[in-house]
Task: inverse folding
């Protein structure tokens, strides 16, 4: 098996990449990096000094591919399956990439900001940055709610890379920041459909034993 995916089971961007693998049944070897083990983390940083997840290694092509979007693009190019996560049509592909970046930059990143700030030591927290992140989430959800009122998936009528991006971003927001239902009913329904899709259901099943580590807001 030539593909090895370096990951952590709680990483939302790893979830994004895993959805792509499971969606098309692409064989790979998962390599879980133990962040609590200095030796495991050091070994990973020898492979990818930036130290961020996920990272794909393709032994057959001697390629190292970091970042979830690049990994999905790489799989679509070299290991395509029945689900065309990046459409062959240029216009449709452009729409998918636009939606992918929208969810990553305007939902995924600020979601992580809000949640990870909770594990910072006292006196090191970024209250202003978290407020900015929450404001961006509200703007993004307002835009996405309008879009999802008229489409089943993030970029139209088919499941694509954009949905791989949206699923974990929406899931962790709903889980640990604020429920989507009520304020954003179309997004909540969309997340429900994503969680029922076999590829993402498998990702969530594998993450379930670790989800209690996700820091929720203190009340």
Result:
């Amino acid at each position: 098996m030539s593909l090895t995916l370096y990951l952590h089971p709680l990483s939302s961007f790893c979830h994004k990449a895993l959805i792509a693998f499971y969606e098309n049944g692409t064989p790979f070897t998962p390599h879980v990096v133990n962040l609590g083990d200095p030796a495991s983390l050091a070994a990973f940083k020898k492979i990818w000094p930036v130290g961020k997840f996920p990272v794909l290694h393709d032994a057959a092509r001697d390629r190292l591919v970091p970042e979830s979007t690049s990994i999905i693009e790489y799989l679509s190019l070299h290991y395509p399956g029945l689900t065309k996560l990046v459409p062959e049509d240029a216009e449709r592909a452009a729409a998918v990439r636009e939606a992918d970046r929208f969810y990553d930059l305007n939902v995924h990143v600020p979601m992580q900001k809000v949640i990870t700030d909770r594990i910072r030591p006292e006196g090191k927290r970024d209250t202003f940055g978290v407020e900015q992140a929450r404001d961006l989430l509200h703007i993004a959800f307002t835009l996405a709610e309008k879009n999802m009122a008229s489409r089943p998936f993030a970029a139209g009528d088919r499941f694509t890379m954009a949905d791989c991006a949206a699923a974990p971003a929406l899931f962790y927001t709903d889980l640990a920041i604020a429920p989507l239902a009520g304020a954003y009913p179309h997004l909540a329904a969309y997340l429900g459909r994503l969680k029922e899709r076999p590829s993402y259901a498998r990702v969530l099943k594998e993450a379930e034993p670790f989800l209690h580590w996700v820091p929720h807001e203190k009340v």
Remarks:
- The CA atoms of residues 100 and 162 lie 4 Å apart.
